[in-house]
Amino acid sequence: MCVRRYQDPFLRGLLCCLAMFALSVNVTGRRVFLTEWNAHNSIAQNDTASAPPADSEHHKKQTTDHYVLLSVLLVLAIALLCLIACAVTMRTAKSMKVKKSMKNIVQSSPKTSIALTEVKKEEQHPELVFFVEEEERFRLENLLDAGADMQNQNFCSSLYKVQLNNNVSYAVKRLKKLQASAEEFDRTMTKVGKLNHPNILPLIAYNCQGEEKLLIYKYQNNGSLLSLMERYVEGKRNFPWKLRMSIAVGIARGLDHIYRSFQDSEIIPHGNLKLSNILLNENEEALISEYGYSNLFDPKSVCLLRTNGYTAPERALSEQGDVFSFGVILLELLTGKIVENSGLDLPKWVKAMVREEWTGEVFDKEIAKVGMYAFPLLNVSLKCVAHFAENRPSIAEVLETIEGVVDEDLSCSSVESSPRDGHVLYSVAEES
Predict the structure, then answer these.
(1) Phi, psi of 200 (to 5 degrees)
(2) Residue 54: which H helix or E strand, with range?
(3) Number of domains comprising the chain
(4) 3-class DSSP state of 1
(5) Which residues, 6 or more positions from 393, have their beta carbon under 8 angstroms from its beta carbon?
(6) Is the pLDDT assigned to residue 34 strictly greater than 50?
(7) Mean of pLDDT values over 400-421
(8) CB of 402 within 8 A of CB of 380?
(9) Structural domain range at position 154
């Protein structure tokens, strides 16, 4: 009965095997004990009887040992078969779960036919709402019938890679646990869908079906900035200065466009900027993803427990919060250190190095080659991660500084480091 409480097939199989092994040992032990007890009792009751020959006793003992050994081997063989069966079952179940998950997105379980009719009229949108005109149109059924490869899953969302019959791959984000109504979700997605910028991942289409919401994007084969950084740290690829600056200025331009496109009351902060949410297109240009729905979750929801290391101390959805997160990303590009999945407090580490006047040791080996150009970016990144929100610059000010460094870099035919680069021309901002 206790085994039924475990849903994992592997754990259930393992527990069954352990139980069978324990039972075998118990039964075998009882047999040996009873055999010895009966033999001892027989000898005690027949003192006058002649003792059996030594060879006969030895033969009986060997026979008993053989039975014990065979019993143990039999149990181990059964246990091995159970483990193999459980492994096959678990693999099959996982495959079926991914395959069926997309199918179950639009399925609902209404209590009555009247309730289902009301939902369809008031809340559900049976077809996809498209924003990108040049994309080939398709129906929701085409999306759900296609093969789906789960990329990521958490408490509030799932991400699938879906390839349609035209061999075009899409990223399908399935949202749940949203606090917003269908009408509010529609209004928000309409604003996000019209947000057109080369450094923001465009929302191709969406679908609102009761509590289930689908967001459809073009799948980016080059992956994320996180995967690029990880390959660089592992020595599997280069990550030169110009590419880092191109990515940094792209992120800043995308954020600046977000905060320039809406009135103050309509601005939707990103709220979850990090390396894995910066995708790279075919030219390795930055695309801000996961934008537009952070304000649709309950503020107390676990869905808003953003990644440690990127979240501002005030933990607010605001421009200042996004500036803090961008400052951390900029520090990662300068130092070559990865915050995501490591728990590293990178702003604290960099500030400590600056206080100890070891500023030159902060930079990654690739950044050390460019000398003085890295120091103004270190200055602006430290301002971005200031403890108090009012001490941080606006994203427009950050963009202006970064573009100035990039323009100066491009105006030079070559960049060479010297022992005095940066240490004389630039000073690092004090901790605030």
Answers:
(1) -125, 125
(2) helix 54-103
(3) 2
(4) coil
(5) 323, 380, 383, 384, 401
(6) no
(7) 67
(8) yes
(9) 118-218
